[in-house]
Amino acid sequence: MIRGEPDEGAVLCTRSSTYSMKFVGTSNSVFLIRPGDSSSSSVTASILTVPTGNIELILAAKKLDKLKKHLKETPSNPEEDFDSISTQKRRLFRCEDLVETIQASEEEVRGALNSLSRKWRNQ
């Protein structure tokens, strides 16, 4: 899944890792062609395109600042009734919402939530 807001760099997130994406231009000619028919004795191919570069993936540190910002904006109280008026006025996040908006893998987001939850309970 590729994630990132217009003001952020794009990242590729797998289930367990996050990769920053960087376009790297190439000075060598590269041709993308259709797979040939192996039973044919012909050695011709149709060129689909000539790319000017490729995307390099680099294992990146998880970007959890946005997660902490979201959680600070919507503090919750475990004793609070989630149907109350005060709760309805605030934006509450489901874990799936956070995974979609944070530039980190699902496992990294869940790990950070568990870590923050332990810190909160120990205060």
From TrEMBL:
<dbReference type="GO" id="GO:0031390">
    <property type="term" value="C:Ctf18 RFC-like complex"/>
</dbReference>
<dbReference type="Pfam" id="PF09724">
    <property type="entry name" value="Dcc1"/>
</dbReference>
<dbReference type="GO" id="GO:0034088">
    <property type="term" value="P:maintenance of mitotic sister chromatid cohesion"/>
</dbReference>
<dbReference type="GO" id="GO:0006260">
    <property type="term" value="P:DNA replication"/>
</dbReference>
<dbReference type="GO" id="GO:0000775">
    <property type="term" value="C:chromosome, centromeric region"/>
</dbReference>
<dbReference type="InterPro" id="IPR019128">
    <property type="entry name" value="Dcc1"/>
</dbReference>
<protein>
    <submittedName>
        <fullName>Uncharacterized protein</fullName>
    </submittedName>
</protein>
<dbReference type="GO" id="GO:0000785">
    <property type="term" value="C:chromatin"/>
</dbReference>
<keyword id="KW-0235">DNA replication</keyword>
<comment type="similarity">
    <text>Belongs to the DCC1 family.</text>
</comment>
